[in-house]
Specification:
Order of helices and strands of chain B: HEEHHHHHHHHHHHHH
Distance between the termini of chain B: 63 Å
Order of helices and strands of chain A: HEHEHEHHEEHHHHHHEHEEHHEHHHH
CATH topology of the largest domain in chain A: D-Maltodextrin-Binding Protein, domain 2
Shape of chain B: flat
CATH topology of the largest domain in chain B: MetI-like fold
Oligomer: heterodimer
Radius of gyration of chain B: 27 Å
CATH superfamily of the largest domain in chain A: Periplasmic binding protein-like II
């Protein structure tokens, strides 16, 4: 059948529009990372290591570990650690696979750990390290010649299994300080300079909550960002918290320290908490709107604070203090699966990549704080200053906090299931769904069912 | 001569052979044509189902690919888990809140589209656009709209003077929010299926009814609905199966994916996913999968029975 000219034009326009919409809707997310070097022949006879076999290593990471500065061409530092290693070892080609989030990496890791198919070097995060420990016999022992001394003791302890094998080389850590809003502290009649806040909050959690109560009494607004954020800080200082080392028995229900911390926090959070869940929409909006005055912040949180607060908020600062001295939040290790094709080369690579000089460069790239004290004297780390946080000397602050982190509490394979149950209990209290005692009882039912 | 004597014999034999082959072809080739599908189904569909059933009876370590037989312990554990029953409650609630309005609204939209509208094709394609959007994208956007403090819907409610609703705190509001996302996606799809069925109804039935004095509503109830009964059965059963398996929308409703601190919107599929891939307990997750399968089977049969009983089939036109 023939169409009138008008119908033809309309039809073609409609088809073009639909095609454009469909293509836009169906377009895939960002492409996987390209291999970092041109696929040239790696047996250059001029290089000193030419006699070695050509090797291709695969490196799998998530988030931004800072080994390359890919997304920010304007960033002040543009270290490319992958290229440095390849230049120093001409027979090695590194294929770099970056996953967006830790959750994706974890699913991939456990899916392939048994049947095979993992990268030669896999990054593992602290949240799933206790689960990885159950399968530590499938990973290589990376301790050699006492190099374990390079790292913070807590970092080594968390990666060492019951047989004394260190199955991961620590990459970054998350020593926590206290980030605060100067104007909000002033409005409550509290000190707002970094030293003043440090003196004010120096002490234990009871002192922290006292200050919070003063803030609330004066302003009627929430003091800290979220109940679960503070819980993370408190529980990290209780050892043992949930399980007994060596037997995997769950002791959370009978642990008086855990219950005391829960009671202390729920009493304070009535007034002092925003009652928002971390990473929720409302929590992100509260940075800008002045919904809270302080947040426990590890180095990687600085980017989050800046992103959520925007350029209009200019009064964030960092106090070199933490209740009870220090705490750690976050951090990763690089592991080498034993069923990989290039285990020895991978071990050398990991050893180099986590050396102090390289960790300092990664920090310069992406703010991931080194887990090796030797790196703290490196000028890149020591002299680091964050302009957004009113010139806070992040290098020194986090070095001090890192040294104050207590010994790592024991974390068994049920650690995060128990922690989830308690976090749910705290959120129920925040939401007003249950009273603290009833919520704790529900959590106990869940914990008793864990097996 | 010998050849002239033999020719009719070989001719008959060849014909007989051809006839036999022909009959055999008629009987066997349908099976040959559908065999590839069933081979693929046996490998990728049936085998995993049986494997899941076997694993559900074991304490399975998926990484070491081994486990020990523990009988029905996984099932007992799941049936005694408080979260399972909460998930069941949530799944049924979200299913009812989504499937019932969806089917009703879809039928209404289909009835409207069945008329001679201008730019008919545009309207008909328009109702399908929400289906094209990825469920994850829908989930992310709607969860921003439904945010408790900074969301748009609570803002609008505030303008009218209503207190903000706890979309992420209370049970029914969260179900309502998730059902909204599901309805957004599936109503248009079901409307088009109904429309296709309605367009197959012979128009003289409507004329006859109109002559007998039936108004528009009466015609719809007494002519349209009985005529599209088979399609309704199809839509209700697929909505049941889909509704009891909802995962994307509740998973995207908040960033943690655990279904709320009090399991307010935890569905069975989410619970299964969290047990299997979160706790790495595949034995229990398999038990949950089989329980879900049985539940869907039972509910689908109930739905089939109800639909058959309450919608009288039209003996002249319906199948």
């Amino acid at each position: 059948m023939t169409f009138s000219r008008r119908k033809t034009v309309l039809g073609l326009t409609a088809s073009a529009a639909i095609l454009a919409l469909t293509v836009a809707g169906c377009s895939s997310s960002s492409d996987p990372a390209e291999p970092t070097t041109p696929a040239t022949d790696s047996t250059m006879s001029a290089a000193p290591d030419a006699a070695a076999e050509p090797v291709t290593l695969t490196l799998a990471t998530f988030n931004t570990p800072g080994y390359q500065q890919i997304e920010q061409p304007d960033a002040p530092y543009q270290y490319d650690l992958i290229k440095e290693y390849e230049d120093a070892n001409p027979n090695v080609t590194v294929v770099y696979d970056r996953k967006a989030e830790s959750g994706d990496a974890r699913t991939n890791f456990f899916a392939k750990l048994g049947p095979g198919g993992l990268a030669d070097v896999e990054m593992v995060e602290v949240d799933w390290m206790p689960e990885v420990m159950q399968y530590s016999d499938l990973l290589e022992d990376l301790s050699n010649d006492g190099n374990a001394d390079r790292w913070l003791p807590a970092k080594v302890a968390d990666a060492t299994d019951a047989d004394g094998r260190m199955i991961g080389d620590g990459t970054d850590v998350g020593p926590q300080a206290v980030c605060y809003r100067e104007s909000l502290m002033e409005a409550a009649g509290l000190p707002s300079d970094p030293e003043g806040v440090a003196t004010l909050l120096d002490g234990d959690w009871a002192n922290f909550f006292d200050v919070g109560q003063q803030y609330f009494d004066k302003t009627g607004k929430a003091f800290f960002d979220s109940t679960s954020g503070i819980w993370q800080g408190m529980i990290g200082q209780i050892d043992p918290a949930y399980e007994e080392a060596g037997t995997d028995a769950i002791i959370a229900a009978d642990n008086a320290d855990v219950k005391a911390a829960y009671d202390q926090l729920t009493a304070a959070s009535m007034d002092q908490s925003t009652h928002l869940g971390q990473w929720s929409e409302d929590w992100s909006a509260a940075f800008k709107s002045g919904g809270f005055a302080v947040i426990l912040c590890p180095p990687w949180m600085l980017g989050v604070v800046k992103g959520n607060s925007g350029e209009e908020t200019t009064d964030w600062n960092i106090a070199n203090v933490y209740p009870n001295g220090g705490g750690n939040w976050g951090g990763s290790w690089l592991t080498v699966p034993s069923n990989g094709a290039n285990v020895d080369e991978a071990k050398k690579f990991v050893d180099w990549l986590t050396a102090p000089e390289q960790q300092a460069k990664a920090f310069a790239n992406a703010g991931t704080y080194p887990s090796q004290p030797a790196a703290y004297d490196n000028p890149l780390v020591k002299d680091a200053v964050d302009e957004y946080f009113n010139g806070a000397n992040t290098g020194t602050i986090f070095a001090d906090r890192a040294k104050a982190v207590p010994a790592a509490p024991f974390k068994g394979k049920f650690y995060f299931q128990v922690n989830d149950a308690i976090n749910n209990a705290l959120t129920r209290v925040d939401d007003g769904t249950d009273a603290p005692a009833a919520s704790w009882d529900k959590a106990l039912t869940d914990i008793n069912g864990i097996s | 001569m010998a050849t002239t004597d033999l020719e009719p014999v070989t001719e008959t034999r060849r014909t007989l052979m051809r006839q036999r082959l022909g009959r055999w072809d008629q009987k066997a080739s349908p099976y040959a044509y559908i065999a590839p599908f069933f081979v693929v189904f046996a490998v990728f569909g049936l085998f995993p189902i049986v494997y899941t059933a076997v694993i559900s009876l074991m304490d399975w370590d998926t990484i070491r690919n081994s486990g020990e037989f523990i009988g029905f312990d996984n099932f007992t554990y799941v049936l005694q888990d408080r979260k399972f029953w909460l998930a069941l409650r949530n799944t049924f609630s979200i299913f009812l809140l989504s499937a019932v309005p969806q089917v009703l609204v879809a039928m209404f939209i289909a009835a409207m589209l069945d008329h001679q509208l201008r730019a008919r094709t545009f309207w008909r394609m328009g109702v399908l656009v929400p289906y094209v959007v990825m469920p994850v994208a829908v989930g992310i956007i709607f969860s921003k709209l439904f945010a408790d403090q900074s969301g748009l819907f609570n803002h609008w409610l505030g303008l009218v003077g209503i207190d903000p609703v706890g979309w992420h705190k209370q049970v029914l509001p969260s179900h309502f929010a998730i059902a909204t996302m599901v309805n957004f996606r599936w109503t248009g799809y079901n409307a088009l299926i109904f429309l296709a069925a309605m367009q197959a109804i012979p128009r003289d039935l409507y004329e006859a009814a109109a002559i007998d004095g039936a108004g528009a509503l009466r015609r719809f109830v007494s002519v349209t609905i009985p005529q599209i009964r088979p399609t309704m059965i199809f839509v209700i059963i697929t909505s049941t199966i889909g509704g009891l398996q909802i995962f994307d929308e509740p998973r995207m409703f908040d960033t943690t994916g655990t279904g709320g601190a009090d399991q307010q919107w935890l569905t069975i599929t989410m619970y299964m996913y969290n047990v299997g891939f979160g706790n790495l307990d595949f034995g229990r997750a398999s038990a949950i999968a089989w329980l879900l399968f049985l539940i869907i089977l039972v509910i689908s049969l109930i739905n089939l029975f109800i639909t058959r009983k309450f919608i009288k089939s039209d003996s002249s036109g319906g199948k």
